[in-house]
Amino acid sequence: MNLKLKPVLAEAEGEGILIIPERNCLVRLNETGLYVYKRLQEGYKPEEIAKLMANEYDVTEEKALEDVYDFIASMEKKGLINEKAI
Questions:
Q1: Which stretches of the chain score pLDDT less than 70?
Q2: What's the rounded Cα separation, in Å, for the pair 79 and 3?
Q3: Which residues does 61 contact at the CB level (< 8 Å), separation at least 6?
Q4: Are the C-beta atoms of residues 40 and 81 closer than 8 Å to each other?
């Protein structure tokens, strides 16, 4: 994952918060967002993450992939990641 900034990830009870010191802001991640964010950090591609999600949660691979791309678009809109580098 190509991060434009260097956020710090804090986790608690299945959710996360990205702390972005350069912007003096926080971004809350729900359970799905946290899962996707961590897999992206580990170098997984969106399609791979969707397969993992489909195996782990009660969701189709197609729906999982849609969720992954929605998350990436949201993070890109906030200027936190560069989708082209994923």
A1: 1-5, 82-86
A2: 9
A3: 50, 51, 53, 54
A4: yes
Contact in structure between 75 and 29 (CB atoms under 8 Å): no
- Phi and psi dihedrals of 41, rounded to 5? -60, -35
39-69 residues labelled b (16+ CB within 10 A) or e (exposed): bbeeebebeebbebbbeeeebeeeebbebbb
* Phi, psi angles (nearest 5°) of residue 8: -105, 130
Q: What is the pLDDT of residue 7?
A: 80
Phi and psi, residue 81, nearest 5°: -140, 160
